[in-house]
Structures are given as structure tokens and as C-alpha cells.
Specification:
With about 210 residues, the chain is mostly helical. It is about 90% helix and about 0% strand. α2 runs parallel beside α5 and α2 runs antiparallel to α7. It comes from Flavobacterium sangjuense.
Length: about 210
């Protein structure tokens, strides 16, 4: 934001006629920076989808289900995968729309609204992904517990206990694993998108000063 700071200093020092030019220049710079940030949000989201798609292609879920003799679960995972990709593609389409709107907007108020809309979309996107991670982990634990032969000893121990100690420990480990994974992904998203959102928020504050 060094260029913007220099413009603001010059704006404060010079006359009213120059103030009008400076205000226009500041808006143009903020517009350009905001458009660039939203473009990067779009690019990163596309790269992220391609990355997870490559991982899912490399890891054959169907084969894993067949090894566990849980073929009846394959159709549910395919349905969940389809819905997940449909929702994510919808988010990416919204990122694209936000980029087009910000790139073509021509007023300070509209640009401020577009920035707010983009920040809200990114936050919904992050929360959706975290929610899907929770759902996937729970589904993975349930399938492993129900179908994995290695879990037979654990299931027998839980069934033979009257105080449910082993069951509570198992659920506790599952919940701790979910919290750790979600926490790591939250930090990842905070680093990935948080920097861009903070820059957008800074632009919004500067635009608010111009709009006064």
C-alpha cells in the first residue's frame, strides 16, 4: 500500500482541485488492487480443487471399500462426492462472478458492496470445506469401525464392558482427531485466504474514507 500512502499524503497537502484528482487516483488504485485480489482468490480456489481431485484419483476409494467388503457404501460416497463437487464448482462460479463485477464496477459504493460480497463468499466457502472435512472424517471412522476386521477386538471389548470406558475412550480419540484435523485445515485456509481477505478489508476501509 506504499503507493496509496504517498497519494494520500499528497492529497492532504495540496489544494481542493488537486484533491479531486487524488481521490480519483486513489479509487483507481484501490479498484485495481481489489480486482487483483479477487482474481487470486479465484485462481487459488481452482488450484485447490485440482489438487484434491488429483489426490482422490490417486487414492481409489472403491478398491478400499471392496477390501472391507463395504461395497454397499460405494454409492453413498459417490453421491456425497458428486454433491461436494457441485457445491464447490458453484462457489468457484461465484468467485468468477465477483471478479467480473469488481473488474467492471464504476462507483465507490458498488466497489465496497462487491468487496463485502466477496469476503462473505470466501468465508462461506471455508466453512463449507471445514464442514465437509468433519462429515468425511466421521463417515471414515464409522465405516472403519463397522467393516474393518481389525476393529473386531475393539467391538468385542466395548460389547463386554458394562461401564462403557472403552467406548468413551474411542469416541474421545475420534473427536480429538477431528478437532486436530479441522484445526490444521482452518489454519491452512486462514493462511491461504486470510491474507487476501485482510487486504480486501483494508481496501474497503480506504474506500469508506473516500465515500464520506
Amino acid at each position: 500500500m506504499e503507493e496509496l500512502d504517498l497519494l494520500k499524503k499528497a492529497w492532504q497537502k495540496d489544494s481542493h482541485s488537486y484533491e479531486q484528482i487524488s481521490e480519483s487516483e486513489i479509487y483507481t488504485m484501490l479498484h485495481k488492487k481489489s480486482s487483483s485480489i479477487v482474481k487470486w482468490i479465484l485462481i487459488i480456489s481452482v488450484i485447490e480443487v485440482l489438487f484434491w481431485t488429483a489426490i482422490s484419483v490417486g487414492y481409489n476409494t472403491d478398491e478400499y471399500m471392496k477390501k472391507l467388503h463395504a461395497e454397499n457404501m460405494i454409492v453413498y460416497f459417490k453421491a456425497l462426492n458428486f454433491v461436494n463437487y457441485a457445491v464447490i464448482l458453484l462457489f468457484i462460479f461465484n468467485f468468477y462472478k465477483n471478479y467480473i463485477k469488481i473488474s467492471t464496477t464504476a462507483s465507490t459504493k458498488q466497489l465496497m458492496q462487491d468487496i463485502l460480497r466477496t469476503r462473505k463468499t470466501v468465508k462461506y466457502y471455508v466453512w463449507y470445506n471445514l464442514g465437509m472435512i468433519v462429515v468425511s472424517l466421521i463417515a471414515g471412522f464409522v465405516i472403519a469401525f463397522a467393516y474393518n476386521p481389525k476393529m473386531e477386538m475393539l467391538k468385542n471389548k466395548i460389547a463386554n464392558e458394562s461401564n462403557y470406558y472403552t467406548l468413551c475412550v474411542t469416541i474421545g480419540i475420534m473427536l480429538l482427531t477431528i478437532v486436530v484435523f479441522v484445526g490444521l485445515f482452518w489454519l491452512f485456509y486462514r493462511l491461504l485466504y486470510g491474507i487476501l481477505l485482510r487486504k480486501l478489508n483494508t481496501n474497503y476501509k480506504e474506500l469508506k474514507k473516500i465515500d464520506l
